[in-house]
Design a protein that fits this description.
The structure is a single chain. By secondary structure, this protein is mostly helical. It has two domains: 1-32; 40-256, MetI-like (MetI-like fold). It contains ten helices and no strands. Helix 2 crosses helix 10 and helix 8 (163-200) runs antiparallel to helix 10. The longest helix is centred in the last third of the chain and has 38 residues, at 163-200. The chain starts with a helix and ends in a 10-residue tail after the last helix.
């Protein structure tokens, strides 16, 4: 059972803060008489959200699909590569600088190459979401495996455990909090990658819709697209956090005690 204090902190408090933020935004726009082309008021944004609900919903579904597809590939690839890197110090030292160099490349510069290879569509968005989100997963899993205490490994080896046994029974379970923590970061990055690809070259998706709205100076529709992305991001983050709490609650049990 969730007590009232936890309910207030996790649900009521964010709702109240969000409503207050929209009210301040509305009052500021009306008081300063800002034109719609500069900063539309929340009332205009919600009106555009309702007026264009059908294209926003259909394009949001495309963005959601490309984001989840890229995120799923990044999760599997990042987990396997993280285990490989954390398996041995030599592999860690050899591959880690390569990953840092690859991650330093701006993904927006890679999107034109992906469009050249795969054409305009959903594939470049999926690959971009994958490229931008797998690095945190790899780093966190490898860190979780690399931080296993040497004394614990020595004790297990003295008891006859092999390297594979230590990895399966100690290393991987210990890295789960790192892994699920990285998923919360990766899911938001996957959204960024998918939308960036859609703004560069796509025929569907929220990024494409926002780019078309910008070209026709429909600024409230642009902000409505941003609002739809924010809602999708919050929902997926909450789902990932719930999964993390379900599988790694033991790692944070002491933090929940008063």
């Amino acid at each position: 059972m969730i007590d009232r204090r936890t309910l207030f902190i996790q649900i009521v408090s964010p709702v109240v803060f969000t409503i207050a933020l929209f009210l301040i935004w509305e009052i500021a726009c009306r008081a300063l008489k800002l034109p719609l082309t500069i900063l539309p008021a929340p009332s205009a944004v919600f009106a555009a959200l309702w007026q264009f609900r059908d294209p926003i919903a259909s394009n949001s579904a495309v963005t959601l699909w490309t984001t989840l597809a890229g995120f799923a590939i990044a999760t599997v690839f990042g987990l396997l590569l993280g285990i490989l890197i954390g398996w041995h110090k030599a592999i860690y030292a050899g591959l880690y600088p390569v990953l840092i160099g690859f991650n330093s490349i701006p993904k927006v510069a890679v999107v034109p190459v992906l469009i050249l290879w795969f054409g305009i569509g959903e594939v470049p968005a999926i690959i971009t979401a994958f490229l931008i989100s797998f690095f945190p997963i790899v780093v966190n899993v490898a860190t979780g495996l690399a931080t296993t205490e040497p004394e614990l490994e020595d004790v297990l080896r003295a008891l006859g455990a092999s390297k594979l046994d230590i990895m399966k029974k100690v290393g991987i379970p210990r890295s789960l909090p790192y892994f699920f923590g990285s998923l919360k970061v990766a899911i938001t990055l996957a959204f960024v990658g998918a939308v960036v690809s859609e703004t560069v070259g796509a025929n569907r998706g929220i990024g494409h819709l926002m780019l078309s709205a910008q070209a026709s100076f429909q600024v409230p529709l642009v902000f409505a697209g941003l609002l739809a992305l924010a809602v999708l991001g919050i929902v997926l983050y909450a789902i990932t956090a719930a999964i993390e709490s379900r599988f790694t609650g033991w790692a944070f049990r002491s933090q929940t005690r008063a």
